[in-house]
Structure formats: structure tokens, C-alpha cells
Design a protein that fits this description.
This protein is about 10% helix and about 40% strand. The protein has about 575 residues and is mainly beta. A hairpin with a 7-residue loop joins strand 32 and strand 33. The structure holds calcium ion (2 copies). One calcium ion (CA) binds next to strand 29. One calcium ion binds next to strand 29.
Length: about 575
């Protein structure tokens, strides 16, 4: 038994090598600080050197320590040792009472910590409120000094941290031309389009043509989240390339993705949209002399699965949203709102789902915000109806409308499921203004519906959640199909596939292994019009820069101020 225990201990210890470190800390307290919030509003709060003070924490100062871990480590087992406290004085107690922050102070300090990455370096961050309520005297005490003890634990190198960065950007050399698009779809770049971009189209070999782009969705906010390291090449079709000459009837076909992203929420079983906060246009880059030595990527054919179908797909999931970015209430941040409910308190919205499936419920979600001193129980409610049916309520909490720094408005969201009455889905949103000063704004509406799998228009995207599952094989039956129809699988935007199908009595049929959700676009005519041409781009090599400590991005109008900040930080080293 002992031997087994020893063996296990060695094994665990060997896998997770860690070391313990201790730092001595003195907290440098000063007199309570007075913060001027506006001309006639002041807040007093307790203060020490490098304290973090926020409204959310009732102005209770928080201790913060960032610890460089010098390698691929994780911080753990953080403890405060030899903590020395002193009772707070009456004046300090008064400040805590005024700010209603006493209830945040408990009989022992709750230490919070996490590991984060900044400039490819790992840091441990420790934070806590340096106060305790003495369990025997009941007095509030503040922390004066302590030893901060923590373990540094080796972490398994994951794919993000282990990532090797490219030494050079593809844009470093070669001739590059930029285009922009705003909608998901199949695009056609004709001889004339390429020529007007500035490409020397008569003298290039079309077999060298490549299109690069990283999809249009917003980059993740977290620095540590996975993302492409450089521009990624997309598979394309170059019609007429085999003769080595780009003739006037030759063209490029590629799948372009807009900046709007739809994600499937499997717990709610619906698709949710994410609007790009910085761009309505997604860009693609074209070259015939890329510095990359790989063979140019071309769209490959994908055979129909020979496995026996388990699911027969005649309907598909579709979704639409309505969201206008019209007002930003505090003139800051990322949240924008649309329709304003004040004098007008009711708005109608129309969604069109061609060939809607009458037997599947439509799922509607409405999100809004309201600014009112009254809560939902006093009528601070938005309600929506779908096709005039029964109302669904969004209940809003009251906000303090007199305090400048209080929460400006409260948000709410509600959903409903109803059977459709036809292809058109009418959504009415009303605000039940509880008093004359109450107002509300619409954030967005999303509608998830099922449509019959019937080709509609020149391009149609489709996917089916119902047939997804381990070991499942779906037989897709797309009707209203003609011989001109092409079906591309666009699940992997970098490696789009041309799906083979059989056509019989106007039904395009193919089988697929559907253990995960796949997405398709069927089209009879690619879009050659909605392409914005930007022309040639300069060569650039972001990967060639030495690592910077700080990057300042600013509008040319603020160049002078930007340089001033840069000089200030450079001076500090
Ligand atoms: Ca040709
Ligand atoms: Ca919004």
C-alpha cells in the first residue's frame, strides 16, 4: 500500500512539477480619497497605493498583484501568510458605511487568482479586498502586511502556446490585389474585374492564381484565443486555367464570407447571430505570384457517401435577424441599440422565409433595454407578438435615474415558439411605458425557422441540425434543382468542396456522413456584381517586426497626441 502510494505520489509529482514562491508585501494605506464624479457629486473611498476602485465594487479598494511566471506555468495554491491587520478608524468606517460596502467584508479574506498571457508571457494575477471582520470583536480590520505564497505549476503545452509563428507574412512579396464583399455567397471574378483591379491579366499564368482571406467573423477578444497567424489561402475554381492563359471568358469562383457570424447554440437549439463591431465588409486578397511554395489551392469534388442513409432531409434550418446600430447610450463601448420607444411605443418587423415548413415552430427572440425608475412589477415591460398571437414579456428591472454613475438602463430578453401562418413572419414589439420619463430601445430580434429544402433564388445556404449525430448518414433532397445547379460544402471556409449529386425529377440528391453540422450553398449563378474593388495593396510584413511593448492605433487627427503618449512610455522604458 505504502509502495503504491509512493509510486502514485512520484507519478503525480513528476507530471506536475511545481515550485513554491513567497513575496513580502506591505500595503501603503493613505487617507480616504475624494473622487469628483461630476460638479455636484463626490464619492469618498478608502485608498492605498495601486488600489483598484470601481463602482461595481461599491468603491471598496481592491488589492491587485501581477506576477511574471517566466515560462509556461500556471499559478495555484495562492495563500496569504503572516497577515497583520489593524482596526480601521471611525472616519474610515463612516466611508465604508456611506458606500454600502460593509457587506463585501467577511471574516476571512477571499483570495482570487488566475493565469493570463500578455505579450506571449504568462502572468499570475492575484486580487482581493484587504479587509476582514474580526470574528471575535466584530471590528472591521484592514490588512497592513502579509507574505503572498503561491505555487508555480508546469502546464501542458497546448496548441495555442506551442504555436510557431510565421517568420514572414504572405503579403511580404508578390503583387497583391484587394476586394471586399458584404454578404455570404459564391462570387465570380471575371477577366474584366481582375483587369480593372490592376492585375496584368494577359501576362499571368492562371494556374498560379490564389485567393486569400480569413473569413469575416470578428477576431476573438482574448489575446490567448486561437486564430490564424497570417492570411490563409482559400480553395477556389479557376475556370479555363488549364491552357496557361487567362482568356476573356475565363473566371475565378470563390466562396466569400460576410462579417456576420451565426453560431449554433446546442442547449437552446437555435442559431444566434454575432454582428461584427468594427467592419461591415470582409476582404479577400488575390495574387498570381504568392511567395508560398505550395501548389495553389483548388476546390475539390466531394463524392456522395455510399453508406446507407439514416435520415432523409427535406427541410433545413434557417435564420434571420434584425438589428440596427443607431444609438450608443453612453457614447462609449460596444453596445448599440436600434428602435427608440418613447413617443412611438410600437414597431412592426417583417421576416420572409420562402417555403417555410408549416409543421415546425418558429423560434423568436427579442432583446431590449429600458431606462425607468419603475420595475417590471410596476409595468416596466416590453412585449412582443408573432403573427398577432399571444404576447411574450420582457421584464425590466428599475434603475436609479438620478445618480450619474448608476447603471443607465437594464436589459432583458425573451423568446417564443409558435407555428408559422405562412412564409411571412410578423413581429410586433411594444413598450408599456410605465411613466412619462420611461423609455426603451430595441437591441435585436432573431427568428429561427425551418424551410422546406426547395431551391429558391440564385443562391441558397442550408444546413440541417436534426440529422446530426454520431454514426448518422443524411440523404439530402434538394428540390427545384436544374442541371446548372452547383452545391458547395462551405463548412470549412478555407477548403470548400464541390458536392457531387444525382439529379432526378428536379431533385438533387446526395448522402453525407452527418456526425457534425455541415453547411452548404447551392447556386445557379455566382455574384459578379457586389464586389468592391480596392486595387493593389503595398507589400507588408507584420511578422517581420521586432516584438513591440505597445501599439497605439489612432486617427490621423490624433497623431500628435498619439506620439506624445508613445514618447512618454518610451521615456519610462
Ligand atoms: Ca484559358
Ligand atoms: Ca445591438
Amino acid at each position: 500500500m505504502t509502495r503504491l502510494f509512493l509510486f502514485l505520489f512520484t507519478l503525480i509529482y513528476g507530471l506536475t512539477a511545481f515550485s513554491q514562491t513567497t513575496i513580502e508585501v506591505n500595503i501603503e494605506w493613505s487617507l480616504p480619497y475624494t473622487l469628483n464624479i461630476s460638479e455636484n457629486q463626490k464619492i469618498e473611498h478608502l485608498q492605498f497605493k495601486n488600489a483598484a476602485v470601481t463602482y461595481e465594487n461599491s468603491f471598496l479598494p481592491r488589492y491587485h498583484q501581477s506576477i511574471p511566471l517566466n515560462g509556461n506555468y500556471e499559478i495555484s495554491n495562492v495563500r496569504l501568510l503572516s497577515a497583520i491587520f489593524e482596526p480601521i478608524v471611525a472616519e474610515e468606517l463612516k466611508v465604508l458605511e456611506q458606500n454600502n460596502s460593509l457587506d463585501k467584508i467577511t471574516t476571512s479574506i477571499e483570495v482570487n487568482y488566475y493565469t493570463t498571457t500578455s505579450q506571449k508571457q504568462q502572468y499570475g494575477v492575484v486580487h482581493f479586498f484587504p479587509f476582514q471582520k474580526n470574528s471575535s470583536t466584530g471590528e472591521i480590520e484592514k490588512l497592513m502586511s502579509f507574505r503572498l505564497s503561491y505555487d508555480k505549476k508546469n502546464v501542458k503545452v497546448n496548441s495555442i502556446n506551442n504555436k510557431s509563428f510565421k517568420l514572414a507574412s504572405v503579403l511580404e512579396s508578390g503583387d497583391w490585389y484587394k476586394i471586399g464583399i458584404t454578404k455570404d455567397g459564391v462570387y465570380k471574378l471575371s477577366y474584366n474585374t481582375l483587369k480593372s483591379l490592376g492585375i496584368d491579366i494577359d501576362n499571368i499564368d492562371p494556374r498560379d492564381l490564389r485567393v486569400y482571406g480569413n473569413g469575416g467573423a470578428m477576431l476573438p477578444i482574448l489575446n490567448s484565443a486561437k486564430r490564424p497567424d497570417d492570411l490563409v489561402e482559400n480553395a477556389i475554381i479557376v475556370q479555363g486555367e488549364s491552357d496557361g492563359k487567362f482568356n476573356s471568358g475565363d473566371y475565378i469562383l470563390f466562396y466569400g464570407q460576410s462579417t456576420l457570424k451565426w453560431n449554433y447554440n446546442s442547449s437552446l437549439q437555435k442559431f444566434e447571430h454575432a454582428v461584427h463591431q468594427y467592419s461591415d465588409t470582409n476582404y479577400y486578397f488575390i495574387t498570381a505570384n504568392s511567395p508560398e511554395l505550395t501548389l495553389p489551392k483548388r476546390i475539390q469534388n466531394q463524392a456522395s457517401s455510399v453508406a446507407t442513409p439514416t435520415n432523409f432531409v427535406n427541410t433545413f434550418n434557417d435564420f434571420q435577424y434584425y438589428e440596427k446600430d443607431e444609438s450608443n447610450l453612453l457614447k462609449s463601448g460596444q453596445e448599440w441599440y436600434g428602435e427608440y420607444f418613447d413617443v412611438i411605443t410600437s414597431y412592426d418587423f417583417k421576416f420572409n422565409f420562402p417555403n417555410i415548413d408549416p409543421s415546425s415552430q418558429i423560434h423568436t427572440t427579442v432583446n431590449g433595454i429600458a431606462r425607468s425608475s419603475l420595475g417590471a412589477s410596476n409595468g416596466n415591460i416590453m412585449e412582443f407578438t408573432v403573427n398577432g398571437g399571444s404576447a411574450t414579456n420582457l421584464n425590466f428591472a428599475a434603475v436609479n435615474t438620478t445618480l450619474y454613475y448608476a447603471q443607465y438602463a437594464s436589459s432583458s430578453q425573451a423568446s417564443s415558439n409558435v407555428l408559422p401562418g405562412g412564409d411571412i413572419v410578423n413581429v410586433n414589439v411594444k413598450y408599456n411605458k410605465p411613466n412619462s420619463s420611461s423609455k426603451a430601445w430595441l437591441d435585436y430580434i432573431t427568428v429561427n425557422a425551418k424551410r422546406r429544402l426547395i431551391m429558391d433564388g440564385q443562391q441558397m445556404k442550408f444546413r440541417d441540425v436534426n440529422s446530426v449525430g454520431a454514426g448518422k448518414v443524411a440523404q439530402m433532397n434538394l428540390s427545384n434543382a436544374t442541371a446548372q445547379l452547383k452545391i458547395w460544402e462551405v463548412t470549412d471556409i478555407y477548403n470548400v468542396k464541390n458536392q457531387n449529386y444525382t439529379l432526378s425529377s428536379g431533385i438533387a440528391q446526395f448522402n453525407i456522413n452527418s456526425d457534425s453540422l455541415r453547411e452548404y450553398i447551392a447556386f445557379t449563378s455566382p455574384d459578379s456584381i457586389n464586389i468592391f474593388r480596392y486595387g493593389k495593396v503595398k507589400n507588408q510584413n507584420l511578422h517581420g517586426f521586432a516584438q513591440k511593448d505597445m501599439v497605439i492605433v489612432c486617427h490621423p487627427n490624433f497623431w500628435a497626441a498619439g506620439e506624445k503618449i508613445a514618447n512618454l512610455h518610451e521615456g519610462e522604458g
